[in-house]
Amino acid sequence: MSEREKLLEVKHLKKYFPVKGGMLQRTVGHVKAVDDVSFEVYKGETLGIVGESGSGKSTLGRTVLRLLDPTEGEIVFEGMDLATLKNRKLRPYRKDMQMVFQDPFASLNPRMSVGEIIEEPMIVQKMLNKKQRMEKVVDLLGKVGLPAEARSKYPHEFSGGQRQRIGIARALTMNPKFVIGDEPVSALDVSVQSQVLNLMEDLQEEFHLTYLFIAHDLSVVKHISDRVGVMYLGRLAEIGPKNKIYDNPLHPYTQALLSAVPVPDVERKREKIHLKGELPSPANPPAGCSFHTRCPEAHERCRLERPELIHQGEGQYVACHLYTTEK
Ligand code: SF4
């Protein structure tokens, strides 16, 4: 990538959900779904975010898009902090930032035709006249590999992969700059996954899109990403260029995740690292490094002090007390 212009800068973002309890349903604690996360997304790139379910990655995506209100932190998009903007001021930015959801069937209104689904955001934003909107619908259907006749059909008449193509077409209706894919291929058959990933890559080039791609599947994220962030219990454990993360993971959690991925090349096979215990509850995360209850390298300091992300060279950052010197 020659151009390294920031499109989005997330600073110390937190999203806590209150936990209610007792007769009076008072707030007795918080689920820290996103807990002090900072990263940047550069124009034209794809940043992949991986983590187990419960790591907070989907909440992170929804909070960045302001589908959820952040508890704290900044979401700076093209220089404007969106974190505290209210409805009217937020509206102009909404069209620039779109989401492709995991389950296309649940996210498409079954009572609307495909044409109406794709047209709807243009009507809401009072964009174009009826004839122009129909032309745009047909054009977008073509871009995602569906025939013009698809516009008069309903979501249930399509396969999972085709429905995700419709979801992608709808996300592109407003000519967004930034698209978040929240597990966009996880519900699809493996054979269809690569077709949809390839389509997303083609559209990225054609429409000059920037992606935040959220998934639990490391091979899917590897396929599409330029850089990758690894989340554990609401925090970033490691972030860096794809090749650094996959070829030279530094954080013990990243190493464990990657050791579970089958590699065809015998020379590069890693010994599988078995993590002890279950993922702790984000309502009650361990003190110090939140990974210390499962980490094979845990030592005294890990139980006491939370590690911050430290640069380890060539854009690779890791939050682990094994790496104390910035490079
Ligand atoms: Fe493991 Fe300690 Fe590093 Fe956390 S800080 S990942 S517990 S070695």
TrEMBL record:
Coiled coil regions, renumbered to chain: none
GO biological process: peptide transport; transmembrane transport
Key words, A-Z: ATP-binding, Nucleotide-binding, Transport
Domain ABC transporter: 8-258
A GO molecular-function descriptor: ATP hydrolysis activity
Top-level taxon of the source organism: Bacteria
SMART domains named in the record: AAA (SM00382)
Family annotation (Pfam families): ABC_tran, oligo_HPY
Family: Belongs to the ABC transporter superfamily.
Protein name listed in UniProt: Peptide/nickel transport system ATP-binding protein/oligopeptide transport system ATP-binding protein
